[in-house]
Amino acid sequence: MSITAFLTDSTLCIGCKACEVACKEWNEIPEDGLKFTGRSYDNTQSLSATTWRHVKFVEAEPIPGFGGNSSDLNTWAFSSDVCKHCENAGCLEACPTGALVRTEFGGVYLQPDVCNGCAYCIVACPFGVVAKNDKDGRAFKCTFCYDRQKVGLPPACAKACPTESIMFGELDELRAKAQARLATLHERGMHDAELYDPIDTSVGGLHAMFIVRGDPATYNLPPDPEVPTTYLKDGWKSSAIASGLLLAGAILAFLGGRNGR
Amino acid sequence: MAGDLTPPFSDTDKEKRLILIRREAEQRGQLTPAGIQPLGAPFPRATPQTGYYGNPTLKEPQWKWEIPLYFFVGGAAGSSAVIATAAEWFGRDRELARHARWLAVGGSALSSVLLIKDLGRPERFLAMLRVFKPQSPMSMGSWILTAFASATAAASFVDLVRERYGESIPVSLAAAATKSVSTLFALPFSNYTGVLIGATAIPVWHRNIKTLPIHFGASGVQAAVSALELLGHDSNASLNALGIGSALWESWEGYQLEANFDPKLSPLKQGTSGWITRAGGVLSGPLPLALRLWAAFASPAKSKSIRRAAAISGLAGSLLTRYGWVMAGGVSARQTAGNAGVS
């Protein structure tokens, strides 16, 4: 099976939230609650246990000729966020039950019937994607529409996207496509367009890449994601030292105590 | 959550807004801009500094009170089992060994109960034993807990048999085997929780991965020693020596944290989480250290009461330390917006 991926091009996103709706309907995810944030037109705010695609409404400083006619109006950019399906996935490594698995398409799939709600994947994800459903205690995240991919269909969000901002295809092809798209954008004067795919970090690249304008940090795409397994060696070394100290300390204390009595 | 349409503004804010609207209308004869200027405007913009409207990049740890309490109980139980074996084999103090072993049995049982409470349903714990996964500290911890709890309970059972039917070769062999296995798993069980929270994406935790297991290990020793002293072993010099050792380490750890001005460590020093961690540090570090050193040189009668005070301080300190660190993880997760980053 080929390794599949998403390439989400923010410069093509019109903020219609069709992907969010398509995702909810296909996967039958419950509502998030009607919450008014009072801060922006985006009331969903972030990915959660009940939101596996989330369109960010990114308002930035007005740029003349881009994003509206008035100098008072913010420039808008939209970007549809999703689970990154990391090459080295923190959640997958951390899961103690084997509920999180790597599928034949290279995605990271959470089996809800195996998940026991330990919530360790939530602190292991460097992108803040996996979330706990407070109602039943288990963790949930994007499935990469494993069921649809199994029968050769594209994920629901990619199928519903009207501008092909969400592209779905083979990972290598999409990486090449992203570079071609960036070249086009730069040619058109969008010199701040870049690809977010932290391939040089321990995460080792994403199966859901993003083309954004400006600093990816504005979109809460962290500049420095690391898969937490990189800290394991130091941790177990420290644990071994602590164990050694305790054993030696206890033996010495009681040997010394016996002689002293 | 559902149906909650209340915007995050208080009535006081809304009252102030009425005054502003009236003032603007009085002065200008109209309100600008035309139409609605919502309360809270101008809205924050998304910037690299604030990230997406100041929303944190990371999700907060979802653990409630059960998990830090488990860290405390588990740490004490693991250390207690090591003390039991050392007291029996090297200190020839069977009374202390028996008490310490029962403390370990009770602690490991309570640990399982707390974990199951956190998961919600008992059978969910069984899912932990589906796989053996060295790269997951949660998986390793579950196996270590299972092995430790079983071996320690078996060791206590063998002790009961020995008390009732007397010493015999099979009983001695069983005692040696169960106690060795119990001690072997007690050692990592007393400190693996440091690896558990250290090997995560939460900045304040993974930045301390090199010291957290030793810190939590020392905290567990402090708690075990304190609990045994309160159970009546308050004149045992070996326990006081272990108490001094762990309090010395906790003082050093506290100094290291205070001397480190890394802004990502601020949840350990500021706000509620900071003050809980600091209080825990003082109560399990310098205070019991001073009291225990004093007790070592005081008259036997006075020494007992000083050590009981040190024990209470040590127990409270160990408990606060675990709560402080877990709470600090939540604060740290909230500080990851934009280019503040996650590492």
Which terms summarize this structure?
heterodimer, A: 261 residues, alpha+beta, four-stranded mixed β-sheet, two-stranded antiparallel sheet, 7 helices, globular, B: 343 residues, mainly alpha, 13 helices, disordered N terminus
Note the topology.
The complex is a heterodimer of chains A (261) and B (343).
Chain A: E1 4-9, H1 18-27, E2 53-60, E3 75-82, H2 90-94, E4 100-102, E5 108-110, H3 120-124, E6 131-132, E7 139-140, H4 146-150, H5 156-160, E8 166-170, H6 171-187, E9 193-196, E10 208-213, H7 232-260
Parallel strand pairs in A: 1-10
Antiparallel strand pairs in A: 1-8, 2-3, 4-5, 6-7, 9-10
Chain B: H1 11-28, H2 66-89, H3 94-119, H4 123-127, H5 137-165, H6 169-189, H7 192-198, H8 203-206, H9 212-230, H10 237-259, H11 271-284, H12 286-297, H13 300-334
Helix pairs in contact in B: 2-3, 2-6, 2-9, 2-13, 3-5, 5-6, 7-9, 9-10, 9-13, 10-11, 10-12, 11-12, 11-13, 12-13
The overall average pLDDT of chain B, rounded, is: 92
Sequence stretches where pLDDT stays below 50 over 5 or more residues of chain B = 1-5
Helix content of chain A: 25-40%
Largest sheet of chain A: 4 strands, mixed
Structure classification of chain B: mainly alpha
Number of helices of chain B: 13
Structural class of chain A: alpha+beta
Using the CA coordinates, give the radius of gyration of chain A. Answer: 23 Å
The helix/strand order of chain A is EHEEHEEHEEHHEHEEH
Write up this protein.
The complex is a heterodimer of chains A (261) and B (343). Chain A is of the alpha+beta class and 261 residues long. Chain A has seven helices and ten strands. Chain A has helices at 18-27, 90-94, 120-124, 146-150, 156-160, 171-187, 232-260, and strands at 4-9, 53-60, 75-82, 100-102, 108-110, 131-132, 139-140, 166-170, 193-196, 208-213. In chain A, the strands form four sheets. In chain A, strands 8-1-10-9 form a four-stranded mixed beta sheet. Chain A has a two-stranded antiparallel ribbon with strand order 2-3. The longest helix of chain A is centred in the last third of the chain and has 29 residues, at 232-260. Chain B has 343 residues and is mainly α. Chain B is built from 13 helices and no strands. In chain B, helix 5 (137-165) packs antiparallel against helix 6 (169-189). The two termini of chain B are 31 Å apart. Chains A and B meet through strand 2, helix 2, helix 3, strand 6 and helix 7 of A and helix 2, helix 4, helix 5, helix 6 and helix 7 of B.
